[in-house]
Amino acid sequence: MQLFFHENTKEKTFHLDPDESKHLIKVLRKTKGDKVNFTDGKGCLYQCIIIDDNPKKAILQIDERQYLPDDDYYIHLAICPTKNADRMEWLVEKITEIGVHEITFMHSEHSERHHLKLDRLEKKIIAACKQSLKTRVPKLNPIRQMDELVQDKTFDAYQRFIAYVDKENDRHLFEKAEPDRAYIILIGPEGDFSQQELELAFNNHFLPCSLGKSRLRSETAGLAAVHTLQLINNLKYK
């Protein structure tokens, strides 16, 4: 199955932009009458019929629609962006494929980057959703101050974690996280969180956790955290 994305599916028929039209008609060689799967990124899967195979403005008609239920858990990754923006693009792509629900970028004491091109990251996320057949597009937030984020009352009902490297912090996230919960996990910059930031997080009920014995790059730690939480929630089906 191939999956396409179109945000506005309120009408019975809709047209694609030139890039998507060209990909559908020229690259995939789809023609009038062919059926194609679309999602609006909000949990709906649509089976559509091509009614005009114009490679610059293909028109489709919705034939069937199916709402796919959301997960029983919610993974929110908050991470300090790396100096190299390409590594953050790689991260959002991979955690979207694995399954993340929300991404927030943080500014902390040791942060190396203060700005990101969110529109470019959005495109990476949508492409990853299409590739991995996801019908929900993860929420992407702009950069927030770390101290503001950890004091946000929105997360009072979440399991809250902060991952960092310390020989005393030896209990893995896998041991601490409970299935079927909403989670937020904080990943620091390459220089890690400061002691003051750790204490602030602890004072706001964030639990320390380890992601293993190795010292990980920020983007590797973010990927490991999302994968671990997905594993905990998928093991219950075994």
Automatic annotation (TrEMBL):
Gene Ontology biological-process entries: methylation
Protein's UniProt keywords contain Nucleotide-binding: no
Stated role: Specifically methylates the N3 position of the uracil ring of uridine 1498 (m3U1498) in 16S rRNA. Acts on the fully assembled 30S ribosomal subunit.
Record-stated family: Belongs to the RNA methyltransferase RsmE family.
Domain Ribosomal RNA small subunit methyltransferase E methyltransferase residue range list: 74-230
InterPro entries: Alpha/beta_knot_MTases, PUA-like_sf, RsmE, RsmE_MTase_dom, RsmE_PUA-like, tRNA_m1G_MTases_N
Native species: Fontibacter flavus
GO function terms (MF aspect): methyltransferase activity
Occurrences of domain Ribosomal RNA small subunit methyltransferase E PUA-like (ranges): 16-62
Keyword Acyltransferase assigned: no
Protein name (record): Ribosomal RNA small subunit methyltransferase E
